[in-house]
Amino acid sequence: MVGYALRRVGIAIVLLWILSVVTFVIYLKVPADPAGFIVDIQKATPAQVAQAHHILGTDRPAVVQYEKYMVRLLHGDLGLSWPTVVFFNGQVRGASVGQMVWKAALVTGALVLGGFVLLLLIAVPLGTFAATRPRSLIDRLTLGLSVAAISTHPLVVGLLLQLFVGNKWKLLPASGYCTVSTPSKASITAWERFAPTGTQKPCGGMGEWAWHLLLPWITFALFFVALYMRIVRARMLEVLEEPWVRTARAKGASEFRVIRVHVLRNAIAPIVTMTAMDAGMAIGIAMYIETVFGLPGLGRTMIRALAGLQGYDLPVILAVTVVAAAAIIVLNLVADIVLLAIDPTVARRGRGMQKSLGRAS
After folding, report:
1. Domains in the chain, ordered, with CATH?
2. Residue 105, Cβ neighbours under 10 Å: how many?
């Protein structure tokens, strides 16, 4: 098991490095001058533009730029956000990209994790219920609704829920985000005195945090619930036909115990694999949902970095890309280890496949 996990970690590191190289090369091909973050390109002299490039470090060869970026990255330094960079007393100062992306990643992570938990709480019971009553009216109705749900874009689902549940019926907050920690009295006082009209009042605490994320979680879960429910149903129907299930029933085990102890445990492995495979899609869906509900996650951070009037904020773009990719790779790694804990034959099958390929070559 340790060797299997180490191989997966090695593969994850290589994939992350390849992704960072590809992202860096793509950015270098974008026709935008980052010096516009510091000087007015149309009015500045060539010397001023050259100084701006030197401050940002973009006057060096691409290999040197990438090397410095990787060295900082390995030390946990993601650089400074270019729109905030200033040259003061011979030093370059600005907003830390690491802190900015870390705060955004926590929001996106909370959205994805909570959405997946809600998704499993809905999909597993519905899939199990449908599998125990195949071809019934409830089974057909559930499958029909699931097809309709998966055919609708999450942006549309989010807008509809926001319009009716949030704005019209006032059942849940339509937008905004609350932190887990309770806001200080100073921040509330500053909001009362200086905040523009329409600015959300500072809020926080576990209750407010979950209350504001409930509608985004529902939007996230509705997009995936159809697929997961159908996978659970199909796998459950397969396992229910196994001989050892009939043996358990013949020994007098109740139907509830057969489903919970014997069938569901053996049918859950594909869900673990699917969760890892859908990690990339989940982060992409989360970015749409963040846009609809005004959540300060990775999606909005990336959009702001790409939509700057002076150009693209390279440090933020690279940081968001690397963080999102690392999250996907780590989730796949965790899923592999969890799947190995559920089914220890996974590692043996992997070694057997490698030996077969070696003999074939």
Report:
1. 98-360 (1.10.3720.10)
2. 20
